[in-house]
Amino acid sequence: MIHDYLKAGFPALCVLTQEPHRAEEALPCEGWTFVIWDCLRGIREATTQKPIDEIKDPVEALNWLNGYQDTVLICHNLHLFLDSPEVIQSIQNGITRWKATGCALVMVSPIIQLKPEVEKFFHLVDMPLPDSEELYTLQNDLGKPLNIKPNRKAARAAKGLTAFESETAFALSLIQKGYFSTRVISEAKSQMIRKSGLMEFWEPADIADVGGLNNFKAFIENRSQAFNPDNNTNLPQIKGILLVGIPGTGKSLASKATASILGWPLIRLDIGSLKNSLVGESERRMREATRLIDAFGKAVVWIDEVEKAFAGTKSSGETDAGTTAAMFGHFLTWMQETKSSVLVMATANNISQLPPEFIRAGRFDATFFVDLPSRTERIEIINIMNRKWGSDIPISFNDRLNGYTGAEIEQLAKDSLFDGLDQAFDALVPLSRTMREDIDAIRQWAKTRARMANTPDELPDEQRKIRQVYRKDSVGEEILDYFLPARAQEETI
Asked: Taking Cα atoms as reference points, which of 310, 311, 358, 301 lies closest to residue 333?
C-alpha cells in the first residue's frame, strides 16, 4: 500500500485506520526493514513480532530510527504524544536524515491530529476497510470447522465494518442462527452508528399512520424499484428528496414512512450536533458522519428542518470562520458523489432560508410541497387519530377542521379525551390563522418549483385560497379566523 511512497522518498506517512493490527500485516513490503513501536511493548520486528529494543519513550523511539538505513518505523498512537515539544522537535530534526538514509516514519492513527509544526512533513494515506471478497474469505475461515458455507449476501452486508467487527458479527450470527445472517450483521452495523455519537437511529413510521400525501407515497413506491437488488433495468437510484411546507403537516412523518416503504433503517442526522468549537473539528465530524453513512450502506438519512442547520451559509466567513460553509459544501459534494444506496430525506418549513445552491436541480431528485390537508386527507387523519388515541371525533366534524394541520387534529384528539370535543376545538388556534401570510407565500413559491405531495380536493384554485371567516367560541363570541375554503355556515368577509 505504501510501497510507491517509500520509493519516492516520503520520510513521514500517516495511515488513517481503525484497525492498527490489520495495518501491521498490510504495510510490510520488500526493500525495507519494517519495525513496530508502541508505548508498552517498545520496538519489535513487524513480521515476527520479535522484540528488538525495550524503548517505550516516543522521543527515544524516533531518535532510534536515526541510526538505521532503509528502515520503516511503524508507530501506534503517536498522535497522542504530539502535544509534547520534544516529540515535535524529534520529528523535525529527523525528517532530513530519514530522507537521506531511506528511512521513514509511519504513524498509524484513527484520526487526523497533526500539529501545524509537522503537518507539512506527513502524507495522509487512507487504509480501506475489508472488501466483500476479504469478508467472504473471513466467513469461509470461520465456517469451515463447523461445515457452514459462507454467504456472499451476508459478506456484502458486512461491508463497512472493520475486520474485527465483521468477525465478531459473523461469530454471533453462527451462535444465534447457525448460519451467516444478514439481520445479525445489520444490527452490528447499527452499533457502529450508535458508537460514533454522530447520528441517531429512529424507528421508521408505519405507512398506515400517514394520512393523505398520496402523491408523495406513489412517488416513493414507484422509485423504490430502483433500489431492488434484483433490478436489472439499470434504473437510476434517487439520492435526495426535499419536503417543504407548513409545520405540522406531516413532513417528518413522511420521511420516517419512507424508510418503512423501502424496508431500510432510518438514521437521523442532526447537523447542529456536529458543530464543535474547536478549529476544524466540525468539518472533521461532518466528514466522519458521511463516511459512516457510506459504510453503513442502505439507509434513509433524515435531516429535519434543514434550513436551520445550514442557515447563515453566506455569512459563515464573518460569523464562524467559514465552518458552516465548509460543512455545507462537503455535504453537497457527498450527496452528488456518493455511490452508496442512501436516500437523504430533508424537511424545511422556511424555504427562503435555504441557500439557492441547495435546492437547484441535481441536488435533490424531487422537491415536494406539503400543504394543509384536503377534505379527503382530513377524513383519513381523523380515522388514524381515533385509532391511535381512542378518541371519538365524528367524520361530520371534518368540515369544521378545514385549515387545520395533521398535528393540530392529533392535538384535538388528545385534548378531547380530557375537555370534550367542542371545548378542545374552541381552545385550539390553527396555524392557518397565525401564519396566513407565510402559508400564502410558500404556496406561491411551490406553484412552479415543487411537486404537490397532497391529494387535492375537487375544488377550483380560487376556492382554496385562505379566507377570513368568523366562528363562535363556547360562550357565543365571534372570533376572526382563517380557513381553507370558507364554510357555508360561516360568514365570509
From this structure: 358
Rounded CA separation 105/395 (Å): 75
Q: What fold characterizes domain 3-126?
A: Rossmann fold (3.40.50)
DSSP assignments along 267-303, one per residue: EE--HHHH--SSTTHHHHHHHHHHHHHHHH-SEEEEE
Cell numbers that stand for 30 in this block: 520488500
| CATH superfamily, region 201-370 | P-loop containing nucleotide triphosphate hydrolases (3.40.50.300)
Report the alpha-carbon distance of residue 10 to residue 261 in Å, rounded.
51
Burial label, 179 (beta-carbon count in 10 A; 0-12, 13-18, 19+): middle
Domains 3-126 and 375-483 share a fold: no
Structure confidence by residue, pLDDT tens digits, 409-428:
999 999 999 999 999 999 99
Name, in order, each residue with C-beta under 8 angstroms of 81's C-beta and a sequence gap of 6 or more: 39, 58, 87
Q: Would you tell me how many other CB atoms lie within 10 Å of the CB of residue 394?
A: 9
CATH fold of the domain at 375-483: Helicase, Ruva Protein; domain 3 (1.10.8)
CA distance 243 to 137: 43
Sequence-ordered alpha helix ranges (H) in 338-435 = 356-359, 375-389, 406-419, 421-427, 431-434
Kindly state the helix (H) or strand (E) to which residue 210 belongs, with its residue range.
Answer: none
Write the DSSP assignment of 115-159 as a string of letters: -TTTGGG-EEEEPPPP-HHHHHHHHHHHHGGGT----HHHHHHTB
The per-residue b/e assignment along 85-108, b for 16 or more CB within 10 angstroms, e otherwise, is eebbebbeebbeebeebbbbbbbb
3-class state of residue 388 by DSSP? helix
* CA-angle at 453, arms to 451 and 456, nearest 5°: 105
Place of cell 437547484: 360
Q: Render pLDDT for 112-171 as a digit per residue (tens, 0 to 9).
A: 778 899 999 999 998 888 888 999 999 999 999 999 999 998 888 888 888 998 999 999
Neighbours of 121 (CB within 10 A): 20
